[in-house]
Structure formats: C-alpha cells, structure tokens
Design goal:
The structure holds 2 protein chains of 2 kinds. Chain A is of the alpha+beta class. Chain A has 5 helices and 9 strands, in the order βααβββαβββαββα. Chain A has a single domain, classed as Aldehyde Oxidoreductase, domain 3, CATH 3.90.1170.40. Chain B starts with a strand and ends in a 6-residue tail after the last strand. The chains are: A alpha+beta, B alpha+beta.
Chain lengths: 164, 77
C-alpha cells in the first residue's frame, strides 16, 4: 500500500513506472491486472470557466483515511497492492489531482477495488476545492457528485460507512 | 479542560478561525465546543465533525486534550 499527499505537480505515469520498478522483485509475475484511475482538472465547472483550483486537506486525518480506505479494499478484494496519490495546493487545467491504482490477479477485483478507492476517497477523505473563475470570482466546490455507476457497490459501502 | 479546535475550507472563512485552543470546563459535547468558539453561531446542518481525526456525530462528548475539527462536505478526487 502506498499513500501520498503531493504539494507539487506529478505525472501519474512516471509515478506508476517508478513504483512498479521499485516493487519489481516482490510483485514480478504475481498480478495479472492493474486498474488505474487518474483524475485531472477540467477548465470548466457548472457552466463557468475555471483557471485555478486550490486543494486543501486536513494533515493527518486525510492520510489516515486514505490508508484506511486502502486497507478496506485489501480486505474486501483479492488485491496484491493499492496506491493513492492526491495533490494539494494550486492546480491548473490538465494537472493531475488524484492517482489511484489496484493490482490484482484478475481484472474484476482490480476494477472493483480501484473504483472503491476512488468513491470512498471522494466521500470520506477530508479534501476541499476552491475554484478561481476566469472572471475573477472565487468559490468553494460545495459537494461531490455521486457516481451512478458505483451504485452497485452502494449498499455495502453505506453500511460500512455508518462507523465511518 | 483544553480542547484544540480546527476549522477547514469554507467554514474556516465563515468563522474566521483556523485553529484555536479552547480553555473551558463548561463544554461537554462537540456542540458546546462549536458554540463556545463561534460565539453562539448556528451550526450549519451539513457540517462534518471529527474528534482526534475520526468522524463523530453531533452531540459526541469531548474530553480534555481532544482535537475537534469542523468542516464542510468533502470534495476531493
């Protein structure tokens, strides 16, 4: 498991190449599926052009929850490893915000675990976004939109979340 | 009793406090902490609360030395 909060920009693909190279000896040949999700900044939201987004987190609690979410995924699915990297600070359009990856013997577990990591991160990990619009105004993003495709995981996730 | 109180994001801007130590023996729950620190402002319905970096419900009891955080719905990812 690898969790990291990044204050500077990153390339998701460089991180993955580096991480896999680092772990090559122990992981070599033991996984058949890697599911990767990369979230990048859009230059529009709710009908407005956005020029900069500032990401804030709660140092300590955020890392704690990201680690917990990875641990839950590792208990629930047959995965060899999981990784979450999340950006904080000022990001610009096309910059990476989040990188999530899950390694498994088979694709179903890799897909499901990576989706779980993303959805749980979005609903539980303490991060906040403030948008700077092209015309100069600033506004906080008020809430994350739930992903309808994740609904099949919904009930179990909700039950788990009761304890948060 | 000393409670470290933190606010994040839009709530920090609304309340005007990032971090504050509350010395008050009259606080029993996180709601009391909110009222004492915000000078009796109404707590927004969607506020999230954490004690020592764990989510808790409104009404949860605080103890000496706790870190209590208030923040709006999270928007990471």
């Amino acid at each position: 498991m690898h969790i990291e909060i990044r204050h500077e920009g990153f390339s998701a693909w460089e991180i993955l190449a580096h991480y896999e190279a680092q772990r090559a000896e122990e992981m070599h040949g033991n996984f058949g599926a890697t599911a990767v999700f990369v979230g990048t900044m859009r230059d529009f939201n709710e009908g407005d052009d956005v020029s900069v987004m500032t990401l804030e987190h709660y140092p300590g609690m955020t890392e704690g929850y990201l680690a917990r979410i990875c641990e839950e995924a590792e208990l629930r699915w047959q995965i060899q490893d999981s990784l979450i990297i999340h950006r904080v600070g000022d990001v610009r359009p096309a910059d990476a915000i989040v990188l999530v990856a899950a390694w498994s013997a088979h694709r179903a577990d890799a897909f499901d675990a990576s989706r779980y990591l993303m959805e749980e991160l979005k609903s539980r990990a303490p991060f906040w976004k403030k948008e700077q619009l092209n015309h100069g105004d600033e506004r906080w993003v008020e809430k994350n939109t739930p992903d309808p495709g994740a609904e099949r995981l919904g009930k179990e996730m909700k039950n788990k979340k009761k304890g948060m | 009793m000393t409670i470290r109180v933190k606010f994040f994001a839009s709530l920090r801007e609304q309340v005007g406090i990032s971090e504050q130590d509350l010395e008050n023996d009259g606080v029993g729950t996180v709601d009391d902490v909110w009222l004492a620190v915000t000078d009796n402002q109404v707590m927004p319905a969607n506020v999230l609360i954490a004690i020592n970096m764990e989510y808790v419900e409104a009404g949860t009891t605080v103890t000496d030395g706790d870190e209590v955080a208030f923040f709006p719905p999270v928007t990471g990812g």
